[in-house]
Amino acid sequence: MDSQSVSENKKQRLFLFLCGIFLTNALVAEIIGTKIFSVETLLGIAPAQIPVFGGGKLDFNMSAGVVNWPIVFITSDIINEYYGKKGVQRISLLTAGFITYMFVVIYTTTELPPAQFWIDINRTDSAGRLLNINDAYSKIFQQGLGIIIGSITAFLVGQLLDVTVFSYLRRRTGPRFIWLRATGSTLFSQLIDSFLVIFVAFYLFGNWEVEQVMSVGVINYTYKAVVALLMTPILYVAHYFIDNYLGKENAQRMTHEAAHQPMVAS
Q1: SS3 label, residue 114
Q2: Domain extents for the chain?
Q3: Neighbours of 163 (CB within 10 A)
Q4: Can you tell me whether residue 65 is helix, strand or coil?
Q5: Over the stretch 131-163, which tens digit does the pLDDT of each residue have?
Q6: How many C-beta neighbours within 10 Å does residue 130 have?
Q7: Is the whole model's pTM more than 0.85, yes or no?
Q8: Cβ of 252: how many Cβ atoms within 10 Å?
Q9: Cα separation of 39 and 62, whole Å?
């Protein structure tokens, strides 16, 4: 096998690997996102009770989906770096399709009649309290139409903004300042994503007030922004291993071609 074929095989294998990380974390984040956890309780501190819009008090409660969602955006930036806007567009559209499929399958399973023995052997929880496990299963996994639409809308809009800002900054800075284009694009795209998903799901399709949307959105964005900044060194580690895997010359050629891709048609 000649060197060109070897380089092409490495390029394809790397793309599949990155797409696997992107797709897996996006799907997992959607599944676990039904749980809301308390940051204060996790850290062992008192509730924040921060005064917010409308005179209410806000604690640091977030969807469990934020735990691994930053990995999606970091992986997106790495794909953009080596495969350009077209690579990110392909995996983003594919992931949106799989998220939709996943929600349909999960909703279908919640409508299946439960086996009686399954209900009987799970009639109590770990503390001995009565439990309807089928009802619990449905409550956990059933997603409302608003949440589904809000999630997919925010995901696609966030990815579009991320790839656009990333590409703009790369054209302005060239191969330098990886941290600037990666972190800058994530901070901007997540600013929109953090508020859009809540606005669509709980304001347009729910009964939340604008003040609640703004308050929870601020908390979610603050977390994502901090994590994006803290994970910046991981980008350089990833680039180091990827460049070694591809070979310096091949890696430079890929990033150059990715940087000079034409705008992706919508």
Answers
A1: coil
A2: 3-113+131-259
A3: 24
A4: helix
A5: 999 998 888 887 666 777 887 888 888 878 888
A6: 7
A7: no
A8: 13
A9: 7
